[in-house]
């Protein structure tokens, strides 16, 4: 009765921006979450790639508790010690020289778009403003980032969209080259299209993109909101391709469960942001930065979690490929890097998400027919085995 009343209140008071499943999650530890009715679930979506250390990791919880007793929020008009420490960690472990903090992936991409345009106007005059993005991409829900997103379903109803964006097929260097003109200032891409169905480009693609940007004096912006922070087995997914961007957006896993975003850039590019050009009231406040520091430091300890992510990712894909071999008419393809894994189906997959949930497994379907798995990086073989058993059962029974 309690769960029913909670859901009724949710339907009454919350805007209907999500098609929520009829469960109420109340507690989480590691790979597991529990509903208000006491039912236990294994979480293979992790808040959509957010809880990289699992739910309520002790080091993150303690960091939040200690910071909450000390200082919750002060304005960016003052220097904030946890923010400075987190920025130093990000710079030390990346290509970047400077960091701007915000509250989400959409805000990080918004900041990246603004910085790219501002830099171009500072260095190349007012006629270079256009950003080339990829079809099937996803960059956020603000008006600018939804325009940058290469999927019409997210843009419908919000026309007219912002000018200055162009879309080309992902993993098609010729199409990108043909789209560049005198107005182009930057290229915005995801290293892997996660929301777009876990689509992975050819190994040479990003090297060619980087070369094109260099030749035409364009900025390369990488949206690592979902692929960053160890998700693909490297700290940042672009490391798989042996290149570095000029600007990078992070969020999701950065805070280990709390809302934080970051936009990173080289010194030269970052210099185009000066007092008054961009800001965020809550960006990088003490509480979220303390959580992010604990998350980052735990992730980087002796490389254990990244190594574990690679091992579990390989094991995960192998288990899914075994299902595909057993049920060839039910599975089109298995693809992924690290613990960002997709199972492409020849039919709509949402009903399978519900079937798995009924059996205690939380997964996700994106692009209509791709089951997306982004579990905490602490997932173990036994957890993967349990999911594989459930997946094989529901797929075998389907249609």
Features:
Aspartate Aminotransferase, domain 1, Aspartate Aminotransferase, domain 2, seven-stranded mixed sheet, alpha/beta, four-stranded mixed sheet, 399 residues
Description:
With 399 residues, the protein is of the alpha/beta class. It has two domains: 2-57 and 303-397, Aspartate Aminotransferase, domain 1; 59-302, Aspartate Aminotransferase, domain 2 (3-Layer(aba) Sandwich). It is built from 14 helices and 15 strands. The strands form three sheets. It has a seven-stranded mixed β-sheet with strand order 4-10-9-8-7-5-6, with helices on both faces. Helix 3 (58-70) packs antiparallel against helix 11 (286-300), helix 4 (81-92) runs parallel beside helix 11 and helix 12 packs parallel to helix 14 (381-397). The protein is globular and about 60 Å long.
* CATH topology assignment of the largest domain: Aspartate Aminotransferase, domain 2
Rg measurement, Å: 21 Å
Query: How much β-strand is present in the residues?
Result: 15-25%
The largest sheet, given as strand count, sense and whether it forms a barrel, is: 7 strands, mixed
Helix segment count? 14
Major β-sheet strand ordering: 4-10-9-8-7-5-6
Name of the top-level CATH class of the largest domain: Alpha Beta
How would you classify the helix and strand content by structural class?
A: alpha/beta
Average pLDDT number: 97
Brief sketch in words of this structure:
By secondary structure, the chain is an alpha/beta fold. The protein has helices at about 1-15, 45-50, 60-70, 80-90, 105-125, 145-150, 150-155, 175-180, 205-215, 265-270, 285-300, 305-325, 350-360, 380-395, and strands at about 25-30, 30-35, 40-45, 100, 130-135, 165-170, 185-190, 220-225, 245-250, 260-265, 335, 340-345, 360, 365, 370-375.
């Amino acid at each position: 009765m309690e769960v029913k009343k909670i859901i009724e209140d949710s339907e009454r008071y919350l805007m209907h921006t999500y098609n929520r499943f009829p469960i109420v999650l109340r507690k989480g530890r590691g790979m597991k979450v529990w509903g208000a009715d006491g039912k236990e679930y294994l979480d293979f979506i992790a808040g959509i790639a957010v809880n990289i250390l699992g739910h309520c990791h002790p080091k993150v919880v303690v960091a939040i508790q200690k910071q909450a007793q000390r200082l919750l929020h002060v304005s960016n008009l003052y220097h904030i010690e946890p923010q400075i420490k987190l920025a130093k960690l990000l710079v030390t472990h990346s290509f970047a020289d400077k960091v701007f903090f915000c509250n989400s992936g959409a805000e990080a991409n918004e900041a990246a778009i603004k910085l790219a345009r501002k830099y171009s106007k500072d260095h190349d005059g007012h006629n270079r403003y256009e950003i080339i993005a990829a079809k099937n991409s996803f960059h956020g829900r603000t008006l600018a980032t939804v325009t940058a997103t290469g999927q019409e379903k997210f843009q419908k109803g919000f026309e007219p969209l912002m000018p200055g964006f162009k879309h080309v097929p992902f993993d098609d260097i010729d199409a990108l080259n043909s789209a560049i003109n005198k107005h182009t200032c930057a290229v915005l891409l995801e290293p892997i299209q996660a929301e777009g169905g876990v689509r992975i480009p050819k190994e040479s693609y990003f090297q060619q993109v980087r070369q094109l940007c260099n030749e035409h004096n364009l900025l390369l912006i990488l949206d690592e909101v979902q692929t960053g922070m160890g998700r693909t087995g490297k700290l940042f997914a672009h490391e798989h391709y042996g290149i570095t961007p000029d600007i990078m957006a992070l969020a999701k896993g950065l805070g280990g469960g709390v809302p934080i975003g970051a936009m990173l850039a080289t010194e030269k590019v970052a210099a185009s942001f000066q007092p008054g050009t961009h800001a965020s009231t809550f960006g990088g406040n003490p509480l979220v930065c303390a959580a992010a520091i604990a998350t980052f430091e735990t992730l980087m300890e002796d490389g254990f979690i990244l190594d574990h992510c690679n091992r579990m990712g390989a094991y995960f894909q192998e288990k899914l490929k075994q299902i595909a071999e057993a049920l060839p008419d039910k599975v089109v393809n298995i693809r992924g890097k690290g613990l960002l894994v997709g199972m492409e189906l020849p039919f709509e997959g949402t009903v399978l998400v519900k079937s798995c949930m009924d059996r205690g497994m939380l997964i996700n379907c994106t692009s209509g027919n791709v089951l997306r798995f982004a579990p905490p990086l602490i997932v173990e073989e036994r957890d993967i085995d349990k999911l594989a058993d459930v997946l094989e059962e529901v797929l075998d029974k389907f249609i």
